[in-house]
Design a protein that fits this description.
mainly alpha; about 110 residues; single chain
Amino acid sequence: MANAILLYVGAAIITIWGIAHIVPTKSVVSGFGQISRDNRLIITMEWIAEGLTLCFIGLLVLVVTLFAGPAGQASKIVYLASAAMLVVMAILTASTGSKTPVLPMKI
């Protein structure tokens, strides 16, 4: 029971994190100052894609936990793959985004 509760809480946190990532997209892109239209569109696309990825991971864990239960083999594979993807995203952010002058990217 405690495992399922932690999975639901974790799924909610990741989903909310994804939504919170998408909401300030316009101000984040504006933070780059005067850049070309193409660069603005690329940054917008990437910022939204990362937020959607976070939402997808959170919702996937939620749906799998609800319908397959936390103990099933498929559930465990989803949890492991989700954790691995979050680690990959964290490494990507630490190695690239943290080096920009834009504060939301550093965070």
